[in-house]
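Reminder to self: tokens first, then the designed residues, so the page reads top to bottom the way the pipeline ran.
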């Protein structure tokens, strides 16, 4: 697993497995500005903080009424940057759900794992790491 975590996909190397873009948001667990060497994506000090940020974003979607797999993924990965239909299909396949299935916060660990897999081509984290990240949110 160490090889994947240090030489694999950008999101894994950045401890940002959801590939959260840089913005004005100051995320808990993000590394100091001087260490933010990725030009586009936030770098976190540990994967739990990247997963925490994912969970916080998903919670914000829920407060806006975005609760189905299709609504969530269409917002997470808009069509102007992604093949959103393929992303929705992949997440639904991983979760064995339909695009119109309504999700709650109890579904976040599984949803986050599916997003990580799609974003990075792999999901290298044990369930405890994902659970910790969600609990931090």
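Designed residues (137 positions):
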């Amino acid at each position: 697993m160490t090889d994947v975590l240090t030489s694999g996909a950008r999101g894994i190397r950045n401890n940002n497995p959801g590939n959260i873009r840089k913005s004005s948001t100051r995320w808990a667990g993000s590394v100091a500005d001087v260490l933010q060497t990725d030009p586009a994506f936030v770098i976190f000090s540990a994967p739990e903080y990247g997963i925490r940020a994912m969970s916080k974003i998903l919670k914000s979607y829920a407060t806006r009424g975005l609760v189905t797999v299709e609504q969530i993924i269409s917002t997470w990965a808009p069509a102007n940057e992604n093949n959103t239909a393929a992303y929705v299909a992949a997440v639904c396949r991983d979760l064995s759900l339909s695009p119109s299935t309504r999700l709650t916060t109890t579904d976040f660990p599984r949803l986050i794992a599916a997003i990580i897999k799609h974003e990075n081509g792999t999901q290298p984290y044990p369930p405890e790491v994902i659970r910790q990240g969600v609990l931090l949110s």
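The mean pLDDT is 94.
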